[in-house]
Write a structure and sequence with these properties.
2 copies of one chain form a homodimer. The first copy, chain A, is an alpha+beta fold and 245 residues long. Chain A has helices at residues 58-70, 92-100, 147-164, 178-189, 195-204, 230-236, and strands at 5-18, 23-33, 40-46, 48-53, 78-83, 110-118, 126-127, 130-136, 208-214, 224-228. In chain A, strand 1 and strand 2 form a beta hairpin. Chains A and B meet through strand 1 and strand 5 of A and strand 1 and strand 5 of B. Chain B binds a DNA duplex (27 and 27 nucleotides) through residues 177-179, 194-197, 199-201, 204, 215, 217-224.
DNA sequence: ACAAAAGTGTTCGATATACACCCATGA
DNA sequence: TCATGGGTGTATATCGAACACTTTTGT
């Protein structure tokens, strides 16, 4: 492949997943070895990121990068912020990595942040020689480059959207229970909701549609399953003027 | 000045202002003349934009560009989206402009969009040889490059924020009347509010504080003036779970 | 039979909406 | 004195918050 890369523009993707307990982010291991002795010099974690090519736009670059790094295809990726601090790449590990890589990096790389929300946690661990895995977002730090900053900004963005848009459904399986939904909202928003009031609220949302199907194989009363209908949502949506106390 | 510019990264700033009637955007005239005959080849309008320098981060670049292009200083600029379509610069006018300019443009420029909200419409018309002016956003088109797209995205972003954050105060003078505020909200949100209900709502917002001052020189009952207190807002803010019908 | 999560209703206070008239000023 | 926008209150419907017990399944 001889597509030309743009030296100083990259895309980094924050891929978030919910496993019914907490939110995880998909990270790729980065291990620098001494080429002679094969000794590990350092090993850390990065978001799925890479430079863009000259012949692709930003959205395409994001999709390609996610596919190359993680094997995931046809996932919805949204741009959320761009990062261009002067010291983004100046950590010693990053400098060693850049020197050892066969890509000619520019001194100055601006990266465009994308995020994606996934229901599932199933994943091939190895993609094109990359070791990728889910890591709980709580307490994560020490990521490569400025990826801590990018991750925090993505989470902030997500939390904000959660209050006003039915974005949560992207993190849930196609068929989900009201309890799973409540746990997700409580986790993201850091609140607790009263079960009855939460369910009352949900039952008013015409776009959360009950299925003729129940949970199976659980050691308690099986829950009703629901799905999200974007069609109904788009048709019934109204905004509200609610920014005050 | 011999700072080095980054060839393929720029910042474009959407500077919006409210004049008590409608929303305007600050645009810079771009006129290409035949260097020999001094004949105008074309003339159109651009957002305030320029390449970034190698030694500045994105926020600093945005502030510098706004200052150079419009003379405005110390205004709050927020990043909102980045644009990297392959055909951003391919319009014949843009190509002629690029060829004629003494800056060596790259084929591929990604631009980071910033916006700013201002109360006032007072402005020097001429800045560093740039002719800058306010233009009503309704019906504007034919801007240079992809600046129509950038402007639309900024407005969309603004409208969205308006519903959930007290961002409107940035577009109002320090001292404003409730009617001015209502007109602004009606303009941006494309709705009408009942005067009494709107005022009732505002009077519940502890962070909209009445001043001991009234309008002067108007040919009707002079209105009470108010100011916005960010302090009180930050202290009393609560989020609400309101994304449904 | 027991453990574990599902599911269900009512009351009360707060908020949203609808609606019409008098007031203060400059011209 | 008139034109112009400023300013005010009440009634009704809807929504949010608080609160405890019964149901269904697997083991």
């Amino acid at each position: 492949m001889d597509r030309k890369i743009v030296q100083n523009i990259s895309v980094d993707c924050v891929i978030l997943g919910f496993d019914s307990v907490e939110i995880n982010v998909l990270l790729v291991e980065r291990t620098l070895k001494n080429p002679d002795t094969d000794e590990t010099i350092f090993s850390d974690l990065t978001l799925a990121g890479y430079h863009i090519f000259e012949d692709e736009d930003l959205d395409s670059a994001a999709a390609r990068i996610v596919k190359d790094r993680t094997g995931l295809e046809n996932i919805s990726l949204k741009q959320f912020y761009s990062f261009g601090a002067l010291d983004r790449l100046l950590h010693p590990n990053d400098q060693s990595w850049i020197k050892a890589s066969n890509v000619i990096f520019s001194d100055r790389v601006v990266t465009i942040g994308y995020y994606s929300l996934l229901p599932s946690t199933n994943l091939e661990i190895m993609q094109n020689g990359n070791i990728v895995n889910w890591y709980p977002i709580n307490g994560l730090k020490g990521l490569a480059y400025d990826h801590d900053v990018i991750l925090q900004k993505a989470i902030e963005h997500l939390r904000h959207k959660f209050w006003h848009e039915p974005i949560g459904f992207e993190l849930l399986p196609n068929k989900f229970t009201i309890s799973q939904m409540q746990k997700l909202y409580e986790f993201i928003l850091g609140t607790r909701f009263d079960k009855r009031n939460f369910r009352k609220k949900i039952s008013q949302m015409s776009y959360v549609v009950p299925l003729k199907e129940k949970q199976k194989g659980v050691a308690h009363k099986p829950a009703q399953l629901f799905m999200f209908s974007k069609d109904i949502y788009d048709k019934t949506r109204k905004e509200r003027f609610d920014f005050f106390v």
